[in-house]
Amino acid sequence: MLNLAPMGEGWDDVLWQGGVWQGGAAGFPIGGVSRMMPTVPLGSPLVLLDDVCLSLASAAGAVEILRGISLAIAPGETVALVGPSGSGKSSLMMVVAGLERPSAGRVIVAGQDLAALDENALARLRRRHVGIVFQNFHLLPTMTARENVAIPLELAGHHDAGALAEAALARVGLGHRLGHYPGQLSGGEQQRVAIARAFVAGPALLLADEPTGNLDGATGRVVIDCLFEEHARLGSALLLITHDARLAERCARRLDMADGRIVGERRAADDIAAARALHARG
What we know:
Layout: H1 11-18, E1 28-30, E2 33-35, E3 47-56, E4 63-73, E5 78-82, H2 89-96, E6 104-109, E7 112-113, H3 119-129, E8 130-133, H4 145-155, H5 161-171, H6 187-199, E9 205-209, H7 217-234, E10 237-242, H8 245-248, E11 253-258, E12 261-267, H9 268-281
Parallel strand pairs: 5-10, 5-11, 8-9, 9-10
Antiparallel strand pairs: 1-2, 3-4, 3-6, 6-7, 11-12
Helix pairs in contact: 4-5, 4-6, 5-6, 6-7
């Protein structure tokens, strides 16, 4: 068992570098983990953004990153956010995670208005309800795969964190790599470790920022299969940031971003209905 007790709340700043906020000490069990359920009224969204704007200072003056974003994500929903580099996708994810304070507008996640929370409260919210997967993996290099996955469980006080981490790694096909360090793993294996870590404590919301961006096509498909299998197992909501239109098609809803705005929305059900209508006419 890792000794993280002396690190306290400040350890969240280190774990941001590792992309970890999830866990909880009460709720119902998911794969042996006691899952903290968010307080969200029935029928209400898990994530709500209302006219959110984000401006950042620069030498040339303020730069508008997000311009009036309004968005709702239901519990268990899968949403793809698609757009070119610089369109504001990653900044939007940072706002949803409470890592960037918006310049205007309202952000509610898991029933809590993020504007009302200080940094420690935001860290607790992330630990309990949010898992994050990054393009660059963000594993701690001096820890084994098992230790990296066990971190959020150790922080949540689970005494069986090691066994739960091993089970999570087995689910993503890495039961034979428990004692390997990130430098001993391939890129695809490192990303599967990151997925196991993000899901191990049963988060209500998963944020995935270009999870296949550094991987070849075949390896990327394996990683995405793992991501969606874990989503299906837990019923977590998923916000997936991607440049890949084919990957976006695996989500129930697709949002297109450009210049800091959501400029289009499509639902998989609408595409299926259109395809059926076209086939019927043919």
